[in-house]
Amino acid sequence: MLKRRVFPIFLLFSLFFLGSAFLTSTFAYGDNPNDPHLRDQWGWLNVYADVAYSNGYRGNSTTIVAVIDSGIDLDHPDLQANIFTNLNDPPG
Q1: CA angle in degrees (0–180, nearest 5) for 8-41-46
Q2: Which of 91, 84, 77 is nearest to 35 (CA)?
Q3: DSSP symbol at 58
Q4: pLDDT, tens only, 37-90
């Protein structure tokens, strides 16, 4: 059985990218994903996702990152195929 682990975003980026985030950032908006609203997503730069992306990290199906502090639109087309619900997680 495949086990999935949820890593808080700060842990994920601190383990893999925080060191390079303070050294240099070679990210340019011309190199970004094809999201036309990327500049409107304040969280993108706050978690150094630009640095991760410029270093070649694109994620994979076994990485789960969960940070929800203001709700979620379950019907959003970018999220529909990417929402994971842990049915074994106790409430609270």
Answers
A1: 45
A2: 77
A3: -
A4: 777 777 777 888 778 878 887 777 777 666 666 777 878 888 878 777 778 877
Which residues fall within 8 angstroms of residue 56, CB to CB, at 6 or more apart?
Answer: none
User: Minimal CA–CA distance to 89: which of 6, 1, 2?
Assistant: 6
Spatial separation of the C-alpha atoms in residues 49 and 17, rounded to whole Å: 9
**What's this model's pTM, rounded to 2 decimal places?**
0.35
Whether 22 is in a domain gets the answer yes
Alpha-carbon dihedral 34, 40, 45, 49, rounded to 10 degrees: -30
**Looking at the domain assignment, is residue 63 inside a domain?**
yes
What is the token pair recorded at 83?
């929402």
Q: Which helix (H) or strand (E) holds 50?
A: helix 49-54
- The tally of domains found in the chain comes to 1
Domain that holds residue 29: 6-82
On whether residue 48 sits in a domain, the answer given is yes
